[in-house]
């Protein structure tokens, strides 16, 4: 039972002014040359080849640039003054007439340039480089050195080219210093000559002063002489000190002598009166005692002598005193060792000592020995003081002669000092004069460190290399695109075929999964919550194709259904999927639609029905279909597969028992098509590809219109041209093109429906039944 829907009566389209072929095809337009579209298309298709080419070329250019020898260059500018001194350049620049002045100036500049490039001057600059590793040879400097002067400008530009930036800076710094020094040589020549003469005399003057000072120092050391007045006063005081010490020594000696006489009397009272003589005799004959006594005498003399000159706290006086005391202790010990040895009783009595073991006698004997030692030491001290006194007297007698010699030495020292002072003062004055003079030349710009080489110009070379690499990558992609015979954009297909475009069907990679996941018919899923805008754009493109078929097909005979064949140039262009969904869309719009799978070679409609939620899988297991209806083995109505959702009727290809040419050329097929026309509004044939298979030619001659499906990046231009020739030969009206697998950049479907559905999801608040049952709400479909 057919459901009641409002009748669809689309408006007629005005005929296009474009010239048409006998079968309704417009003349194809010639393909455009290489334009922006061609370039962008090639980049989109072969971006990897373009990227690889660009990368390889940039790598080669970068490697070659990296391997090239880096040559660096830097410059300094020196302002010169041709009138700064009595130089040859100044004389040349001082001409009378203007013409002569210009010529002379040129000669002066050339002369200066040749002078600055002289080997001697370059050698001076090289020597001034502190790092020996950066010192080039003179030949290398001459090879890389350039000195130029701008016309009517007293500025020299000195440039140097080398492989090392550090060497360039070092050489230019050395040359700048040498050139500045050269500029002041003439102007300061006279003053410099005076300075050089004086400086040549300075070593001899310093030597004379040093010799004079050395003689004075030696004189003072030898005679212990500081100056006449000080020395006379010191000697007089020294003599008075010695006299007082002599008097003091004599007083002490007299007291010791008196104590010794008293001790002798005490010894005599105990019977030891003759022991002193014996002791004296024994000590006189002992060599050790005599040696210590002589040493004590010498130390006492030195001590008395130095104690007169220096204070008691002087280290020398303290040292002599310590040495004297230590020798005195040794002298006493030696005397005890000589006099206190064990003797027989007879030897004791011979000495007049009655009781040698008596402690009192022992003490007296020890005291006698001490007094005798003291007397000997005091005697030695008195002798040394007498000797010192004699020396002082001698020095006082020599003082007038020494004073005269010292005065002469002082006079020679003053003369040498005044001479040296005059030389130094004159040199300083001359240097001040030089410092006050204006330097003829001056350094304007110091040498800059060359961070980038002069050759190769890395930024420029890499920039040009990058541009060339990018252009090469673009050319490669465009070339590959030109060599690729597949069509890649709708405009090129339209230009080749001359057919109108009914719909641009976007590419959806997971179309079967998307439709299966949603379930139901297209109209029922339009207001779903999913945001798979690529899938919605595919649905809308199918709807556009279905409406296009209705708008372009002839509707004058309202009682007769229209037979539409859907074909393509090659297999796998999506022809069967498009035919299936187009038929389903027309059925959802309320039309009576029959989809017939006429591809006897490779049927896919049965598989589409089995995987679609519109059909029961069990109903799609039977393989009977069109071939069985044509041969009459079964009634065609029994071979239909009807969708419970959209009432779509589908007939499979069936079992091929005879040749497809025989089947499609059978009169029974004509009778079946007449029955189908009366039963359905639209009969859609899913035909085999038109190129290479003759079935489509036979079917195309029986249908009312043909929809040519072209899949981008699959169909080849040569094959499309062959398909157009076949279509033109069979004189079948062509409704238009259905271009499949259109990328996003060729169609704005995705962006538009993303915006449209996002807005509609926000504002939609109607009942879902209005969409599921549009006829109940008074909505025309």
Low-confidence stretches: 1-22, 84-98, 341-358, 516-530, 762-781
Instruction: Find the structural class using helix and strand composition.
Output: alpha/beta
Shape, per Cα inertia axes: elongated
Span from first to last CA? 19 Å
Count of alpha and pi helical runs: 28
Largest sheet: number of strands, sense, barrel closure: 8 strands, mixed
Mean pLDDT: 75
Residue fraction in strands:
5-15%
Total DSSP E strands: 12
Q: What's the gyration radius in Å?
A: 67 Å
User: Considering DSSP H and I runs of 4 or more, what fraction of the residues is helical?
Assistant: 55-70%
**Quaternary class:** single chain
Describe this structure in words.
30% of the residues are buried. The radius of gyration is 67 Å and the shape is elongated. Helix 11 (287-309) packs across helix 14. It starts with 35 loop residues before the first helix and ends in a 9-residue tail after the last helix. The longest helix has 78 residues, at 359-436. With 781 residues, it is of the alpha/beta class. It has an eight-stranded mixed beta sheet, sandwiched between helices. It has a four-stranded antiparallel beta sheet with strand order 2-3-1-4. Helix 26 links the parallel strand 11 (705-711) and strand 12. Mean pLDDT is 75; it is low at 1-22, 84-98, 341-358, 516-530 and 762-781. The protein has helices at 36-45, 47-67, 88-93, 98-116, 119-127, 138-144, 165-185, 189-223, 228-269, 275-285, 287-309, 315-339, 345-350, 359-436, 458-483, 490-497, 511-518, 522-525, 533-552, 575-588, 605-611, 626-631, 660-664, 667-679, 695-700, 717-730, 749-763, 769-772; strands at 72-79, 145-149, 155-162, 442-445, 501-506, 562-568, 593-597, 641-642, 649-651, 682-686, 705-711, 734-742.
């Amino acid at each position: 039972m057919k459901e009641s829907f409002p009748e669809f009566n689309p408006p007629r389209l005005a005929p296009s002014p474009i010239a048409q072929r006998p079968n309704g095809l417009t003349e194809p337009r010639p393909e455009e040359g290489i334009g922006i579209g061609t370039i962008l298309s090639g980049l989109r298709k072969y971006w990897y080849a373009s990227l690889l080419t660009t990368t390889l070329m940039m790598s080669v250019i970068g490697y070659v640039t990296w391997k090239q020898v880096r040559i660096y260059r830097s410059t300094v500018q020196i302002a010169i003054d041709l009138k700064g001194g009595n130089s040859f350049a100044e004389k040349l620049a001082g001409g009378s007439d203007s013409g002569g002045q210009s010529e002379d100036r040129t000669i002066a500049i050339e002369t200066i340039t040749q002078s600055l490039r002289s080997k001697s001057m370059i050698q001076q600059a090289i020597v001034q480089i502190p790092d020996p590793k950066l010192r080039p040879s003179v030949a290398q400097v001459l090879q890389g050195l350039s000195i130029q002067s701008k016309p009517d400008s007293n500025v020299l530009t000195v440039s140097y080219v080398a492989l090392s930036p550090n060497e360039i800076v070092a050489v230019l710094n050395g040359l700048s210093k040498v050139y500045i020094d050269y500029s002041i040589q003439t102007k300061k020549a006279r003053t410099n000559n005076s300075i050089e003469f004086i400086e040549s005399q300075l070593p001899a003057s310093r030597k004379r002063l040093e010799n004079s000072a050395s003689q004075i120092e030696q004189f003072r050391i030898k005679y212990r002489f500081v100056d006449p007045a000080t020395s006379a006063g010191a000697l007089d005081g020294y003599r008075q000190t010695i006299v007082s010490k002599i008097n003091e020594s004599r007083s002490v000696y007299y007291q010791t002598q008196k104590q010794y006489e008293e001790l002798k009397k005490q010894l005599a009272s105990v019977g030891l009166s003759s022991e002193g003589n014996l002791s004296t005799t024994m000590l006189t004959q002992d060599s050790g005692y005599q040696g210590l006594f002589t040493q004590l005498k010498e130390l006492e003399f030195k001590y008395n002598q130095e104690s007169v000159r220096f204070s008691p706290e002087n280290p020398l006086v303290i040292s002599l005193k310590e040495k004297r005391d230590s020798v005195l202790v040794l002298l006493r010990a030696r005397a005890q060792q000589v006099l206190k040895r064990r003797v027989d009783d007879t030897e004791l009595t011979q000495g007049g000592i009655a009781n040698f073991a008596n402690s009192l006698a022992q003490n007296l004997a020890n005291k006698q020995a001490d007094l005798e030692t003291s007397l000997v030491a005091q005697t030695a001290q008195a002798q040394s003081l007498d000797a010192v006194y004699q020396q002082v007297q001698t020095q006082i007698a020599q003082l007038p002669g020494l004073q005269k010699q010292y005065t002469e030495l002082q006079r020679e020292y003053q003369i040498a000092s005044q001479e040296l002072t005059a030389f130094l003062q004159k040199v300083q004055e001359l240097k001040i004069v030089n410092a006050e003079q204006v330097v003829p030349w001056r350094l304007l710009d110091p040498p800059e460190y060359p961070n980038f080489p002069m050759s190769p110009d890395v930024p420029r070379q890499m920039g040009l290399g990058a541009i060339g690499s990018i252009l090469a990558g673009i050319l490669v992609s465009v070339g590959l695109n030109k060599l690729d015979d597949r069509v890649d954009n709708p405009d090129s297909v339209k230009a080749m075929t001359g057919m109108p475009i009914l719909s641009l069907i976007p590419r959806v990679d997971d179309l079967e999964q998307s439709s299966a996941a949603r379930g139901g018919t297209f109209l029922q899923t339009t207001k779903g919550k999913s945001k798979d805008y690529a899938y919605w754009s595919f649905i809308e493109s199918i709807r556009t194709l279905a409406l296009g078929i209705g708008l372009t097909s002839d509707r004058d005979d309202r009682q007769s259904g229209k037979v539409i064949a859907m074909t393509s140039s090659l297999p796998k262009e999506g022809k069967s999927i498009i035919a299936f969904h187009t038929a389903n869309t027309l059925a959802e719009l309320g039309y009576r639609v029959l989809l017939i799978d006429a591809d006897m070679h490779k049927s896919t409609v049965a598989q589409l029905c089995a995987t679609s939620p519109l059909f029961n899988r069990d109903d799609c297991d039977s393989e009977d279909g069109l071939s069985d209806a044509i041969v009459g083995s079964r009634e065609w109505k029994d071979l239909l597969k009807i969708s419970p959702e959209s009432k779509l009727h589908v007939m499979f290809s069936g079992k091929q028992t005879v040749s497809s040419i025989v089947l499609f050329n059978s009169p029974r097929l004509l009778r079946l098509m007449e029955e189908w026309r009366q039963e359905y509004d639209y009969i859609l044939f899913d035909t085999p590809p038109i190129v290479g298979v003759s079935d489509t030619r036979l079917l195309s001659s029986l249908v009312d219109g043909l929809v040519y499906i072209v899949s981008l990046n699959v169909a080849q231009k040569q094959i499309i041209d062959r398909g157009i020739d076949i279509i033109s030969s069979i004189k079948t009206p062509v409704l238009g093109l259905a271009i499949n697998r259109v990328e996003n950049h060729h169609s704005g479907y995705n962006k538009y429906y993303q915006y449209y559905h996002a807005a509609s999801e926000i504002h939609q608040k109607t009942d879902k039944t209005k969409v599921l049952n549009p006829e109940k709400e008074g909505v025309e479909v």
